[in-house]
Amino acid sequence: MPGIVIHVAASALYAALALHFWNSRWREPAPAAGGLRGWERAALLAPLALHGWVLYTEMFASAELRFGFAYALSAMLWLTVLFYWLESFVFHLDAMLPPALALAALSAPLTEIFPGRIGGAYAASLEFRVHLLLAMLAYSLFTIAILHALLMAVAERRLHRKEGATLGALPPLLTLERLVFRLIGAAFALLTLTLATGIAFSETLFGRAMRFDHKAVFGILSWVTFGALLAGRLRYGWRGRTALRWTLAGFVLLVLAYVGSRFVLEVILAR
Length: 271
Description:
two-stranded antiparallel ribbon, 2 strands, about 0% strand
């Protein structure tokens, strides 16, 4: 089956499920709070399998590794939906699925439009693929955290306006807040490993010590920002708008580190 057909099929399934969860978890007067039904959990596996298979065959199955901003974004959102599917066995976060699935639907066909480029000889090495996998996992966990934090901010604003804090089938705000910081903590650990492997493998992969290009600078700035957020949470109990601002700032810096810079190079500058 041609890649474009698989991409379109995965995108259509993501979009259909996003619409389903929007209607069943957000629009109903009393949204279901009992977690995913069996058929819903099974249905999510269909686009995940299609999307995951085509990403694997195009990025990792061959000796040459193809990557670019579209592949990074597509893989990041595939992992995001996968994490939500796994989370559904422990937490009832059904209301988080519509935005995650909608973003995955948009990202799935992007690799056909922006095919990226074949990496150099270093891209076939195990070290580089480990480094890349760690980076994608960190991106995905930070994406989940930012979606949680944004919806939590909307729920808090509704509460302050006395409109009620309920927003779809979300758990209580305090539970959601604890989950956000757990996600940021896990993602920060993965980002630390990403930077560490980049430094450790730089000489092996590229034949030179790590240089401070835009990816390294934005990556380190993001690491410092999220580290400051976690320290502020532990020492000063940061929460609410303060935590949201730091989370947004760190996420923007992280996106600029690779996805944003590759978008500028591949799409705007056509390099």
